[in-house]
């Protein structure tokens, strides 16, 4: 069985498109009829998201965490308990390509990181779009990490302990642990998802926040050496073990994150963290990987 997890927090307006696209992907002939189970994790939903899922006979799981890491983990656990051998993750405001699942499985990798394409820029300026698209690498070996276009074998997922309970960057943290334990990871633009560029996102440091930041930087340019680096291209051109950050304040797994994540997780937000590791906010931009956050 193949499992698909869709976390949702009040997504009645967009999740119908998401689920319709997943049903098409689940029927791809390359899957040879293997059963695909889709689970929508209703995280503190107060709208009609469940009704939209029910109308499409899609399973739901209700939690009240307001935390995408917890939501993805809850869905994954339910699917693994039901016998899923492969876990695919997307977002409620996204629509996967018809071959999205088939392309993941044909890689024979432990994990697959796909790409996203923004299909509606109405909420953002042409300058923000141009800046984003200039930095985005839509190619093989891209090194982007998107929770909206991610797959992992159940065995590899269990081996590293699953998603951490993070409100943002839970996908980056999971891929870092997979990489650190020697999992085979395929970075491919053959695994594709269309996603929204909505102005109000769900994750505090997700795509919407990144696009807002780009617009602010266009309006008021700043020295890049004083700005937290984008973390989703963390592994391009450097070893994932470089500059470990130990400011994780008790969150399991985070103590081994590269310090480029410190601006997201360090409560002190200071130039030198408690482990006396230079904070990535103050590293020279030439030492860091430029690229989009989401």
Task: Give, in order, the helices and strands.
Answer: EHEHEHEEHEHEHHEHEEH
CATH architecture assignment name of the largest domain: Alpha-Beta Complex
- The Rg value, from CA coordinates, equals 18 Å
- Fraction in helix: 25-40%
Number of DSSP-assigned strands = 10
What is the CATH third-level topology name of the largest domain?
A: Spore Coat Polysaccharide Biosynthesis Protein SpsA, Chain A
What percent strand?
15-25%
Total number of helical segments?
A: 9
* Overall pLDDT score: 78
Q: Which structural category fits the helices and strands? A: alpha/beta
What distance lies between the first and last C-alpha atoms, to the nearest angstrom? Answer: 29 Å
Please summarize what this structure is:
The protein is of the alpha/beta class and 294 residues long. The protein has helices at residues 15-26, 49-55, 68-81, 100-106, 126-135, 154-160, 170-180, 207-219, 262-265; strands at 2-8, 36-43, 59-63, 86-89, 94-96, 111-118, 150-153, 185-195, 244-245, 257-258. The protein is built from nine helices and ten strands.
Structural write-up:
The chain is α/β, with parallel strands linked by helices. The chain folds into 2 domains: 2-213, Spore Coat Polysaccharide Biosynthesis Protein SpsA, Chain A, CATH 3.90.550.10; 223-287, no CATH class. Helices cover 29% and strands 18% of the residues. It is built from 9 helices and 10 strands. The strands form 2 sheets. It has an 8-stranded mixed β-sheet, sandwiched between helices. Helix 2 links the parallel strand 2 and strand 3 (59-63). The longest helix is centred in the first third of the chain and has 14 residues, at 68-81. It is globular. It starts with a strand and ends in a 29-residue tail after the last helix. Mean pLDDT is 78; it is low at 223-294.
């Amino acid at each position: 069985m193949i499992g698909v997890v869709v976390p949702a927090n009040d997504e009645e307006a967009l999740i119908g498109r998401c689920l319709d696209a997943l049903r098409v992907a689940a029927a791809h002939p390359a899957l040879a009829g293997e059963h695909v189970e889709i689970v929508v994790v209703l995280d503190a939903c107060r709208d009609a998201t469940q009704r939209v899922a029910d109308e499409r006979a899609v399973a739901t799981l209700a939690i009240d965490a307001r935390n995408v890491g917890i939501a993805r983990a809850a869905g994954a656990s339910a699917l693994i308990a039901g016998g899923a051998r492969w876990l695919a993750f997307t977002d409620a405001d996204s629509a996967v390509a018809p071959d999205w699942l088939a392309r993941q499985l044909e890689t024979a990798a432990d994990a697959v990181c796909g790409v996203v394409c923004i299909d509606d820029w109405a909420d953002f300026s042409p300058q923000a779009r141009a800046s984003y698209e200039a930095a985005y690498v839509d190619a093989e070996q891209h090194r982007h990490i998107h929770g909206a276009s991610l797959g992992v074998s159940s065995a590899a997922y269990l081996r590293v302990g699953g998603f951490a309970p993070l409100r943002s960057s839970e996908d980056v943290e999971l891929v870092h642990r997979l990489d650190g334990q020697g999992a085979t990871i395929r970075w491919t633009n053959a695994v594709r998802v269309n996603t929204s560029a909505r102005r109000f996102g769900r994750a505090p440091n997700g795509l919407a926040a990144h696009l807002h930041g780009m617009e602010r930087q266009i309006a008021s340019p700043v020295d890049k050496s004083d700005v937290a680096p984008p973390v989703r291209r963390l592994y391009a051109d450097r070893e994932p073990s470089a500059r470990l950050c130990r400011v994780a304040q008790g969150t399991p797994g985070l103590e081994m994150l590269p310090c480029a994540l410190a601006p997201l997780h360090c409560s002190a937000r200071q130039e030198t963290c408690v482990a006396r590791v230079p904070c990535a906010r103050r590293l020279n931009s030439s030492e860091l990987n430029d690229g989009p956050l989401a």
